[in-house]
Each structure stands twice: as C-alpha cells, then as structure tokens.
Amino acid sequence: MSRYFPALLVAFVTMLDPASALATGFVIVNLDTTGEGLNDPTAAIPVGGNTGTTRGAQALQVFERAGSIWAAHLESPVEIVVDTHFQALACSASAGTLGSAGPTTVHVNFTGAPQAGTWYAQALGNALFGADLSPSTSDIAMRFNGALGSPGCLESVSWYMGFDESVPSGGISLLSVALHEIAHGLGFTSLVNSATGAKLSGLNDAYMNLLEDHSTGTLYPAMTDNQRVAASLNTGNLHWTGAAVLAAAPVLSAGVSHGHVEMYAPSILESGSSVSHFSTSLTPNELMEPSYNGPNLEPGLALQLLVDMGWESALCGNGSLNPGEECDDGNQVEDDGCDARCLLPPAINCASAARDDCAEAGAGGFTFTEKKPGAEVLKAQWK
Prior knowledge:
single chain, alpha/beta, 5-stranded antiparallel sheet, 7 helices, 15 strands
C-alpha cells in the first residue's frame, strides 16, 4: 500500500537533463522553466570547485554534488530521483525560507518493511523493498528560494555555489541547503500532523517511532494526539532514541540529555520546522538544525538518524575508511586518536605525515588506515 504525500507533490512538466544522471544513484530532475533557476543563463565565474559558467549550470553541479555526497554514505539498489525547482518562497528583508523538501510518496506494509503498519518515505521504502514502489513518481520533491537577494527577500545575501566552506560574507551555501533538503526527502521528517498530533491515516511512521518525550518517558507511537502536540512543544525533552545516533552522541558537547540527542521543540509550534530537525542547542552545529548556521558539507548525525530508520550505510566504526572519514579505528569512542565521527583530532594533522607518524601521534591505540584526500550569518529558516 502506498500513499501520495499531497503537501509535497510538484505539478510541473518534468525536464530531465541527461547530464544530471549520476552513477552514484541520484538523478536530479530540472523542473524550472526557461531562464529561471537551473536554466538561468546568467554568466558566472567558476568558484570553489564548481566549474559551471552560468548560474543555472552551477546550481545543477551543486545538486549533483549533494546527491553524490549522500550516495557515498547510503546504500540502495534503486535510483533516487529528485525533482528540483527554484521559485519565490516565503521571505522578507530580514528572514526567509531557503528551501523545502520531502518524500513525494510514502509506503506501508511492503515486503521488506522492518515494521508493519508503518509509513516509510519512498526512497527508503524502495531501498528496503529492492525495487521502485512507485516507478512513475519521483522520490523526493525539493524547492529552493529563487528570490534570494532580490528586493524584499534577504536583500543582503545570495547563494554561494562553491563546493567548499569559503563562503563570503552574505553568502549562503547552496550545497549545505541541498544536503539538508535531500535528508528530509530521504525520511528525516515527521508525518504526524503538527497542529493536531494525529498520525498519517492513523498509522505510525519510521521517524516518529523513535521520538520520545523524556519528561514522561513515552514514545510517540504510545501517545495520544494531544500528548504528541505537547511533546512537540516540550523544549529540551523531545529526544531521538535510536541506537546509531545514541552511539555517535559523544561528538556533541551540548544538546544531549540522558544520552539522547534533543530534537527541535520550540514552545510555540513552527510548522515545517518543529520535530523534523535537531535542536538548535546542539554543539557543534549539525546540518539538520532548523536554521542555516554556516556551511556544513557532510551529513553529520543525520546519517546515523537515517540508519536508525532503516537505511543501510557503511558507518564510522566498521574499521574501513569510508567517504568523508579521515580514520576508522573500529569504534566510535572519543579521545582515542580517532573520534566518534571518524575524524582526526585537530592536534593530529596527518595531511602530509607518513602513516607511521600518524599512528604514533594517535596515542591510545588507534590504527591509522589512510588520510582522506582534501575535500573539496545570517540566520534564515530551513523547512
């Protein structure tokens, strides 16, 4: 059984650029009309590893890059198709929506579903089922603010198209926003009605299953509708209880309560933001917080959260060096020379050191396998 997720349907003619099909499993579908967004012919200077020479070409390269980053971390036998569109989104001179995204359809009770009576985002359902559950429908629908920097819409900022963190003053990394929005489409989103607390068609979903109101010790599925509304407003007490996030939580110095990572639960409901993000109390900042807080070019704890929901991934701690890792000593323990995100501590700079030098510097018994090659503020609301 499957269901369309009406709020996220995109009713535009699909125009697929053949060059946007990625070997890594993501396909970016261009829904923009002539001259806008991905088809913007405005000349642009290559920047931060992005070789595009028009604004549209650069935007396409950013989305392809975002897809390749997620594809390097997640496993699926089914191609992930992403509808992408620039348009004017809610905005003022001082604040605005940068982007919005979600799964186009959700599915329940298919062969391979880990839990019966539970909704799964289309891309995750496809990965678990092993084939496309809705072959005529794209998996993810994404929109980005095409009015950014124009009169009346965050006038002093603009999209930065580079693949690096050298974002100039007033720039917002489109790559960071794209990574964030793709995560929502992959399943990092609650299907519960935020205003009423009602489950989608009365059924649980893979995201809500791991949400807890720590003040009552109750998980979302066991709550009444009113209790879910109360939990979504219970700042500091709405927690994620999944094992993968729990294991990686030591990377945080704030935003963790009783070992659980806090989720975004402001005392006044923020539709589209409440519940479906990590808390803004997390330190260091995470990609999946509700507001942009600078360039963030890796999934961070969002990867572990998606794994908790059912995605397969080669995670940090498996003893093998995976994309985005600087080391992997077979665990997710802090202060042993290779941290819980498989990154080297700042004091150990192995960028140009010999392998045995790195092993010696990493006192504590870790085994240095290989150094990752060089990878390529204003608050504004995500959705």
